[in-house]
Amino acid sequence: MILRTRPALTGENYSQQEAELTLGLLKAVDGDDMLTQRSAARDLGVALGLVNTYLKRCVKKGLIKVQQVPSNRYAYYLTPNGFAEKSRLTAEFLSQSLNLFRQAQNDYSELLDICEARGWSRIALYGASDLAEILILYARDYPVSVLGIVDDSAVGTSFGNLPVVEDVNALGSVDVHIVTDLNNPQPIYDGLTKTYPAERIMAPKLLEISTKPKQPAGSGK
After folding, report:
1. Residue 90 lies in a domain
2. Residue range 178-190, pLDDT digits in tens
3. Mind listing the pLDDT tens digit for each residue in 129-144?
4. What is the span of the domain harbouring residue 45?
């Protein structure tokens, strides 16, 4: 397998430092319902004023919503766009990391163990990426069949001798849907949940896809 080189964090025209701080802040908001600017600054190891600046940017971009709550403090929530951006930035960093293979190997082995235990043998992947290559490689050791890859940006091509299609229905009966996209994994996951039971949708932990109910879009206090 050859890891393909991707442009460095160009989705929102971030610099490397901006991308790291933005991702760190989005993770902090997602992981702590009681987050304050001071605690975020401490956890991220940056100045309080810098956290305030980046929070305002994220609110302006519609990534974070701020609401006033009792005790005269503000509560911070990720919007649907915020969840998607957190997942996208995480994937961008991973795609440039030599640790991608090791992390994906562990995550997909765990998912394939679950598939085997539940008797799910017919798998559809979503995203023609390095992650798809890793899963296809390790699936050979399990009693499963990877039917093909759903990716409208690569329709009509083949990937690892598998068909790439626009519509999963072209692959026939599918037991489980696994996210392998490195560009926009969160929107793909969210879209799948509108059609399939959550237990039939899987994604590696390394993508940090959120399964939480999404807050309504908006950024007003």
Report:
1. no
2. 999 988 899 999 9
3. 888 988 998 899 999 9
4. 16-78
